[in-house]
Amino acid sequence: MDKNNNIVSSNRLLIIYSAMVFFAVLAIVRIAWLQIFYEPDKDYGVKGRTEALLPIRGSILARDGRPLAISSPRYEIRMDCVTSADTVFQAGIDSLAQGLSEIFQDKSAAKYKAQMVKARRTNDRDIKIGDRPATLSEMKAIKKLPIFRLGQFKGGLIIKEQADSRIYPYERLALRTIGEVKDNPDTSSSNKLIGLEGRYNYLLHGKEGSRHLRRTEDMKWIVDFEKPVVQPENGEDLLTTIDIELQDIADKALRAKIDTVRSIEGGCVIIMDVKTGAIRAMVNLGRRKNGKFDEIYNYAIGQVGEPGSVFKLASLVTLLEDGKVTLDTKIKGNRGRWSYNGRTFYDEYIRNNEEVSVLWGFMKSSNQVFRQLVCENYTGHEKEYVDKLYSYKLCEKFNFDVKGEGYNFIPGPGSANWSGTSLPSIAIGYNINITPLNILTFYNTIANDGKAMKPYLVEAIEKDGKVVKRLGPTVLSGKICSQKTIDTVKKALRTVVSEGTGSALRGAKCNVSGKTGTARIIVDYTDANGKRRSGYEDPQGYKRHQATFVGFFPSEEPVYSAIVVVYSKKTRGNFYGGSWAAPVFREIVDNICTMMPDWGEKIEASASLPQVEDIHLDIGQFDDYTIPDLTGLGLSDALYLLENRGFKVSYSGEGLVASQTPPAGEQGSPGQLIKLELD
Predict the structure, then answer these.
(1) Inter-residue contact 511 to 557 (CB < 8 Å)
(2) How many helices (DSSP H) and strands (DSSP E) are in the chain?
(3) Mean pLDDT throughout 244-251?
(4) Where is pLDDT greater, at 599 or 223?
(5) CATH code matching the domain that covers 244-607, chosen among 3.30.200.20, 3.40.50.2000, 3.40.710.10, 3.20.20.140
(6) SS in 3 state form for 482-505?
């Protein structure tokens, strides 16, 4: 008996111990789960919270008001399937389902009806409608559908605004200049602020608003209408200096020259208004890994380097202004050889000439002529020469409208970058760092009779169609040199085209003045001993080039200045400004001449604009010619919607669209006139 009792007692103890171990293990597992995996509901026990209301980002506009970048609001559509009365639900469910199917085109009306009926039966007060966010036009159409037209509390329509979708109507055209804002939610230090979008993000973004939410008994968040709502303040618009037609002409001209050439890395084009410094076009094409050219890097403002022979204009201006030479001054050829500070330089262009003039040396781009002239006149006075170069604003930091300006630099005597051959090198555009934008600004100054203008991209800041702040032209220097010097170098620049290395521009549709330039680019390589080296050519004979043409037109009364720069990859061949950049410049000039009323015929078909992307902002999405509701839109957005649907537009007043004729919803026809009243 005692033995049996002992067995029973042992079994009981075993059960107790096992239970204790089990619950202990369970507790340990629970603790571990809570510490490692559990994420508590931060809103648990919270009765109210604040929700941000996002503003609509401002538009970036071309000089004529056409949008280069616009925002289209997106809305998440949800439904409380319980709140509507039975009679309302039964009477409108079929029409509602049909309308949603036509708008979203993601599933049939029958499936929409089944989804909503099931949700009503299961008391689901928050179901998602559509497989994507709705556009502004779609959201307005949804609000007019049966049941939903009664609103949130009687019809169950729930609209949640999401971040805007940014749309670029002209696709990749000028995209590096227009830019983008890439937000990284994890770290603001990783945010990318590119182009105008980045530089003026603080104006374009606007100010967020807020509204209060409260929690219901079934733990759903709804708007608390008893508390005030702070409406968002939409962003301001940027009116830029960009001319869409000129941008398109420049883009096409550069692509046509480099698109099929494997040895080209990239290139840029800038077109500037001579009198104001306004940038009318800025093209930046770099080669992607897939071999296609795209707007991926801003060469125009960021690519510093040795410009080569286009810099000889600065040397010529200095020599003329200081009275050291005239265009007729003679220089001995010396069979193309000239020595300075123990180094002998060779120039094949002059080897067969006993003597040449300064003008000949400039139009033929002779290195020896300008090395010799600068060194003979400024050895011992190097600082005077360099100071003159700086006075031309060649190294000016413009605080440009797009971030990423390169560091422009010309070394002076005594600096770490100065050597015994710096003076002859600087004379011909080497041993210095200058961006294409800075070179163009200098040539623009010559075209503008010595008046230096700051280059700029933003003409004005607008709000609701009204100018908030006008920016416009800024003078950098009233006169960089005498009018006599200006007239002399203008003659020399015209001769480069008519008789010199700019022969590709002879016969252009208007007279062009300018200068070719060819410069080698430093390349990195590994020598025979495995050491990293750099120089103008690697041991295998590979080198890189920068080919340039910069000038202005028409020569008689300059309207535009422009620069074309083409960058090569490593190659054994040679690239010259006269054969690579000048033909692009010629194509640009000829096409601009045809579109200018005072210069020639209408623009040719080859310079036609790309098709504007269909961005589906129209209200009448069921019929292409249904007149949209434009009330409350800014003028630029209203024009964009109407003109791209084939309507003609007239308007009066300032501000937002207050009324329109004919009214929204009517059936229109191509070419029909729509009248807008702004207020």
Answers:
(1) no
(2) 19, 29
(3) 96
(4) 223
(5) 3.40.710.10
(6) CHHHHHHHHHHHHHHHHHCCCHHH
Average pLDDT, integer, range 376-393: 97
Report phi then psi at 513, rounded to 5. Answer: -120, 140
Residues 612, 169 contacting (CB under 8 angstroms) = yes
Question: What's the pLDDT at 188?
Answer: 42
Q: Which of 627, 622, 617 is nearest to 166 (CA)?
A: 617
Query: Given this chain, do its domains 244-607 and 635-678 carry the same CATH topology?
Result: no
Question: CA 504, CA 453: separation in Å to the nearest integer?
Answer: 28
Find tokens 């182009």 and name the residue. Answer: 195
pLDDT value of position 192: 67
Residue by residue, what is the 3-state secondary structure of 331-371?
EECHHHEEEECCEEEECCCCCCCCEEEHHHHHHCCCHHHHH
Which single residue is written with the structure tokens 């093209």? 283
Which is the CATH superfamily of the domain at 48-240?
Penicillin-binding protein 2a (Domain 2) (3.90.1310.10)
Note the pLDDT tens digit of each residue in 346-372: 888 788 888 999 999 999 999 999 999
- Termini Cα distance of the chain: 106
Which listed CATH number (3.30.70.100, 3.60.15.10, 3.40.50.720, 3.30.10.20) goes with 635-678? 3.30.10.20
- CA neighbor of 279 nearest in space, from 199, 178, 169: 178
| 233 pLDDT above the threshold of 70 | yes
Burial 597-606 (b: 16+ CB within 10 A, else e): eeeeeebeee
3-state secondary structure (DSSP) of residue 35: helix
Q: Quick one: tokens of 377?
A: 């006149």
Over residues 390-412, the pLDDT tens digits come to: 999 999 999 999 999 999 999 99
pLDDT in tens, 491-527: 999 999 999 999 999 999 999 999 999 999 988 888 8
Spatial CA neighbour of 150 closest among 241, 80, 75: 80
Q: What residue ranges do the domains of the chain occupy?
A: 1-39, 48-240, 244-607, 635-678
Q: By C-alpha distance, which of 46, 216, 220, 223 is closest to 126?
A: 220
Q: Which residues contact 413 (CB under 8 A, 6 or more apart)?
A: 382, 383, 386, 422
Higher pLDDT, residue 264 or 607: 264
Mean pLDDT over 326-351 rounds to 90
Q: Could you give the residue ranges of the DSSP H alpha helices within 55-179?
A: 86-104, 109-121, 136-142, 152-155, 175-178
